[in-house]
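Task: sequence design from structure.
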């Protein structure tokens, strides 16, 4: 066996005849399933994703990387600060998805004054009654 440096800079051990076929250009380099020394960088948000060398090559060539799941701050209209996945924030900001605030609030009901825990969206509706 002989060592062969892959384009990603990792090294593999191959039989001599396989190395000759690859070096002469008759056979492609084998896929590398080791962690890539360079992460995948999302074009729009510039967040990074740790991937294997073979996945990095596929994502760059085909543009089919999974959505960015980095947690980021999202300031919804209701004012409750939240952390959401990066791809979700971009969808909300582009109006490709509607945001529903998950916060629960304790409010006094407008007609009877009783205290009740409601969703943020319900609180907005209740305030319109007042």
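Answer:
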């Amino acid at each position: 066996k002989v060592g062969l440096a892959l384009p990603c800079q990792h090294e593999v051990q191959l039989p001599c005849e396989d190395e000759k076929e690859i070096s002469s250009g008759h056979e492609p380099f084998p896929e590398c399933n080791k962690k890539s020394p360079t992460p995948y960088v999302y074009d729009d948000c510039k967040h990074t994703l740790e991937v294997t060398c073979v996945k990095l090559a596929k994502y760059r060539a085909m543009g089919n990387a999974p959505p960015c799941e980095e947690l980021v701050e999202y300031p919804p209209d209701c004012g409750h600060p939240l952390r959401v996945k990066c791809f979700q924030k971009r969808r909300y900001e582009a109006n490709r998805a509607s945001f529903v605030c998950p916060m629960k609030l304790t409010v006094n009901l407008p007609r009877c004054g009783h205290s009740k825990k409601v969703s943020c969206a319900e609180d907005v509706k209740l305030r319109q009654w007042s």
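The helical segments are 16-23, 53-62, 86-93, 120-129.
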